[in-house]
Amino acid sequence: xxxxxxxxxxxxxxxxxxxxxxxxxxxxxxxxxxxxxxxxxxxxxxxxxxxxxxxxxxxxxxxxxxxxxxxxxxxxxxxxxxxxxxxxxxxxxxxxxxxxxxxxxxxxxxxxxxxxxxxxxxxxxxxxxxxxxxxxxxxxxxxxxxxxxxxxxxxxxxxxxxxxxxxxxxxxxxxxxxxxxxxxxxxxxxxxxxxxxxxxxxxxxxxxxxxxxxxxxxxxxxxxxxxxxxxxxxxxxxxxxxxxxxxxxxxxxxxxxxxxxxxxxxxxxxxxxx
Length: 274
Ligand SMILES: *[C@@H]1O[C@H](CO)[C@@H](O)[C@H](O)[C@H]1NC(C)=O
Ligand SMILES: *[C@@H]1O[C@H](CO)[C@@H](O)[C@H](O)[C@H]1NC(C)=O
What we know:
This protein is α+β, with helices and mostly antiparallel strands. Helix content is about 30%, strand content about 40%.
């Protein structure tokens, strides 16, 4: 009994000794899981600082939040995230400027903030179609899925099935569709990312152009050239017999001299008028 009591006393004094020497930061809350985008309040309470507190600030993902810089010797500091959204997720640190400086972290976890690289993609028939989605919110997704959306029906496009290939990293997922087909592949797609908080998604519309459509501008030029050549050819063909006939009627170079004569007549007439 006495032994137990003295052991207890020893433990208590040990705890007190460490509490006396080590600064402790009590974070409130210890973690935030924000799904409904409400206001979030973070706080840190520094007890037993090793030296005077010269100031404090907060950091998000290792970057100092300028508006949080405080030069007062507070040992209790708060940071408010007004209307937390998917971009406010991250690892927050409260930093107390003691010597040495001390800090503690609070994780603010949000749903994946998924964004399509482009909301409208285009591909040529028989080519490869590539759709890309990214996510930069915290925590990063642990899983990506792709769906084809027809009305309110979603079909999972599993990697390696049919002509689909899915390549994913936590920040990015790419769906490749080989040999695009106008009928089968044009339409709406959805990328869905999941983390420990839940899921987020975005949509992409894929348009598939026929090979012929890609050729239209070229075909247009070809058609234009053909028409021009034909017109010139026909004109030349129809003109030749007339020229020969003219030659027969009035000897050498009749057209030129006629034109010159007409011109002269006109000049004379104009001068007369003046
Ligand atoms: C900070 O912690 C100390 C010691 O536990 C406590 O007495 C004090 O009330 C706390 N301050 C606030 C603002 O919670
Ligand atoms: C999809 O399949 C390919 C080939 O089978 C593989 O290399 C790749 O890692 C797979 N991707 C995913 C996300 O499972």
